[in-house]
Amino acid sequence: MNAPVIVSGSPVTPAFDVAAVREQFPILKREINGKPLVYLDSAASAQKPRAVIDAMIHSMEHSYSNVHRGLHTLANETTDAFEKARESVARFIHAENREAIVFTKGATEAINLVAASIGLTLNAGDEIVVSEMEHHANLVPWHFLRERKGVVLRFVPVTDEGALDLDAYRALLGPKTRVVALTHMSNVTGSITDVRAVVEAAHAAGAIVLLDGAQAVVHRPIDVQALGCDFYVFSGHKLYGPTGIGVLYGKPERLASLAPYQGGGEMIGVVSQDLITYADPPHRFEAGTPPILEAIGLGAAIDWLETLDREAVEAHEQALYDRAVAGLEGVDWLRMLGTAPGKGAILAFTVEGAHAHDVAQILDRYGVAVRAGTHCAEPLMRRFGVSSSARASFALYNTLEEADAFVDALLKAKSFFS
Amino acid sequence: MSAIDAELSELIDEFELLGDWEERIRHVIDLGKSLDPLTDAERSDLNKVRGCASQVWLVTGRSPDGALTFRGDSDAYIVRGLIALLLRFYSNRQPDEILAFDAKGGMTRLGLEGALTMQRSNGLFSMVERIRRDAREATAAA
User: Which of A312, A376, A386, A400 is catalytic?
Assistant: First the structure.
């Protein structure tokens, strides 16, 4: 028996049962400074359900081995579990097949892989389109190409509401555009990119499209074939799975023509003294022993998520966000960054008279965990004219009471600086 | 008792008068407000201590008697207050005194445990590292 343990629990119900969901996250019982933990930093990294913890423990205790190498029972069992996780990912994002799914150590590595391999085919003067709201993970790998190959980066501006300026985007596209690399959902504002419009215009210009789905995949159903993108990347740890595992989806024909990134075991066809050939995707891009347990854990996270009604999850998360915003209505010392319609449940803000760092430290004393800083998105901070901001991000396990606790704690925090 | 330990016990007395953490934090914020700010020129990249959530600057000087002097600043109030405390420990001390002092333990005794975590997002830890590095370099140069 090598299948990950599937958690018993609430079946799919139209009404989202947050109490039942919370029961499956052991860490949510913790207290911080004598207060119940209110974890509003899931956009940085989400907590893990019992199903994920159990699947990884089960693998270690029961059938652990390296994958794709041995011929013994444990090797077969672990390889099956590892490849089953790949199938779960492919099903989850509606990929053409499981060979379209490359395991990486995270979204960051996935983007580095694509940038490095595509970079081999780019020349000085070729253009890459990114936006002002990219995470540094979707900027720095392209900056490498600017530094090393003379590639030109073109930045799509962001509107005052925090949305991608689609008209400006279309105007940036031209005969030299080779790659469009954009976030599907901003990690700061929660703004959602109109991906179909982006892809249509990029493909018309002959450019390929990479989407950073690290946030979007957590909150919206993803169908990569319907989106039409060439590459889609995300991390496991924001999707209620483990750290150390991420996904690069590539259209089969794109992956087939992509040069390998790292060299090592299991990515080759033949190795001799003067010749090497490479394995077909996805193995071509998975040099060395992969993060086996982490992949199995990610598969378990996805299998668990699929037991939930994701539309109900989205509605629940939106209700949390709306509750917090309603609680802060009329507060004149608060500035929210990003108010675009249809945006996700991420609330980035600045507080007049206090630094984001101050706010986060005080909130922590009340048990409320938020992020403070630039959120690895310095160009966006600059766009909004702030040096940093605080960010409360809502997840499926948060409750309306927690949204209220956040508002109460924030009002108290402000009193320290008045 | 070293001068730093004397300062610590004075601070412990000062903080004992305060009640719960809310009062302590308010006091730390007040200390930060009364800290002399650095000039724009002193808030330079050279003086910047690696942080993420907030920015921290440290200016190191040397007295004729060999003591190291420190001035610091931050754009966050609580961090400024904690810097004010650290400066009371560290500024105008001989390098060997600086190296002998356990800042983390000192903060804990003030009821401010957690102030010096190893998080990169917290520039204070890096500030203590830089102060200790300056002290080591001063010792080596002596």
Answer: A376
Give the CATH class of A53-305: alpha beta
Q: Is A357 on the interface with B (CB under 8 A)?
A: yes
Contacts of A387 in chain B (CB under 8 A): 55, 75
Report the alpha-carbon distance of residue A189 to residue A182 in Å, rounded. Answer: 14
In chain B, the number of structural domains is 1
For residue A376, indicate whether it is catalytic.
Answer: yes
Instruction: Provide the domain limits for residue B32.
Output: 3-141
CATH code, residues A5-32+310-417: 3.90.1150.10
Out of B52, B102, B114, B137, the active site residue is B52
Instruction: Tell the residue number behind the tokens 């596209």, with chain if given.
Output: A173
pLDDT tens across B70-127, in order?
A: 999 998 899 999 999 999 999 999 999 999 999 989 988 888 877 666 666 667 888 9
Taking CA–CA distances from B20, the nearest residue in chain A reads A365
Secondary structure (3-state) at A94: coil
Interface test with B, best of A32, A136, A357, A416 (most B CBs within 10 A): A357
Q: What is the pLDDT of residues A24-56, one digit of tens each?
A: 999 999 999 899 999 999 999 999 999 999 999
Which residues contact residue B113 at a Cβ distance below 8 angstroms, ignoring those fewer than 6 apart?
Answer: B107
Predicted-assembly ipTM surpassing the 0.90 threshold = no
Do A230 and A251 contact (CB within 8 A), yes or no? Answer: yes
Verify whether the Cβ–Cβ distance B76 to A365 is below 8 Å: no
Query: Cβ–Cβ of A416/B121 closer than 8 Å?
Result: no
Question: The domain that contains B83 carries what CATH number?
Answer: 3.90.1010.10
Alpha-carbon separation of residue A248 from A99, A285, A288, A345, A381 (angstroms): 11, 10, 17, 25, 27
Residue carrying structure tokens 């939106």: A318
Task: Give chain A positions within 8 Å (CB) of B53.
Answer: 356-357, 360, 372-373, 388
What is the spatial distance between Cα A414 and Cα A4, in angstroms, rounded to a whole number?
47
CB A18 within 8 A of CB A350: no
